[in-house]
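thread from #wetlab-drylab

HS: before we spend reagent money on co-crystallization trials with uracil, can we at least see a predicted complex? here's what I'd submit
DV: go for it
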Amino acid sequence: MDAISVIRTKRDRGELSDEQIDWVIDAYTRGEVADEQMSALAMAILLNGMNRREIARWTAAMIASGERMDFSSLSRPTADKHSTGGVGDKITLPLAPLVAACGAAVPQLSGRGLGHTGGTLDKLESVPGWQALLSNERMLNVLDTTGAVICAAGDGLAPADKKLYALRDVTGTVEAIPLIASSIMSKKIAEGTGSLVLDVKVGTGAFMKTLDDARELASTMVGLGTDHGVRTVALLTDMSTPLGLTAGNALEVRESVEVLAGGGPADVVELTIALAREMLDAAGVKDADPAKALADGSAMDVWRRMIAAQGGDPDAALPVAREQHVIKAPASGTLTRLDAYDIGIAAWRLGAGRARKEDPVQAGAGIELHAKPGDPVKEGQPLLTLHTDTPERFEYALQAVEGSYDIAAQGTDFTASPVVLERIA
Ligand code: URA
């Protein structure tokens, strides 16, 4: 077998055989297939696609490139959630302790932000002392004792994906449905969860800009999970505007704690409860009431224990950025658009995200929203507050925010998009 013949097969719109897929993934992981050869193959896949059999085999080969975790020693069923990424998407933070409080175990391997989308680990690292990197034994111990753990995936899990994802990121080959589906599902299946709920984001702030693309991605991933014995369900959810009223690391932790205290923005609460219900159902946990677990403080108790078990101080003050800049509404009326992508880019430019994987992030940087689409606004009222430690970033962030919103005359007909758009099982 050689890399050139595999590339030619896909370049010429052929089907890759099982043997070709197994060989190329294994040889790439071992360094025998060069980065330039794999990037040519990834581009051929992006342009010419893969069928169901090829995607299934590609995913299985990536799982086989590393170790598989095993949670069979736990007394509770496991349930995990994966979001395809968005702006202000802090849902994992209240969701993991909430589902644990309702009786499932939540092994949540999470990532860092890159580009305009935030990452759960960056958000949690704004809690003083909290650690993302745990050994497999420590992860299992936190999961067993608190019911939930949120941590970085170890190096042994789907190493082929780790290498390939970094390569796709710099070769314009991220946005291929077969590659996204196999990348996400290889990690989730290798992680060993019994059930999985996928939050597939749709809209300007998401990878998938249209419902049709989101449906295709969701049904591909649901099929892969089911074939590997993982009960998998997907919700397609709106990402045309940021979730909640904050985008940025410590700002989003603060908002998540508000949700765990029984308050918080309506869209964050709605999506957290909708995903919790799906996870509990997929895990076979009956008679649990996630809304009650938010109201009675039991989800907050798990949050506090989970943060403390990973070295964090749940009572410590969260970092606040040194400088703020308020953007005021230029007119009175109804806010009819606040674009998720533009807000994500502005938060990133303020220091909430990184330009290169090795860059640090600012814990306090980001954006607070003072109105959501559908809300009435008055000329001169605060619309957005920008936060950063480095005020020279304001100008660059303001360029991103310019044109990110529309205000229509009062009384204009407007219906905000529902949070949950569709369910695919
Ligand atoms: N997230 C992943 O883990 N992989 C992708 O390819 C895209 C998003």
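DV: The longest helix spans residues 266-283.
HS: ok that's useful, forwarding to the group
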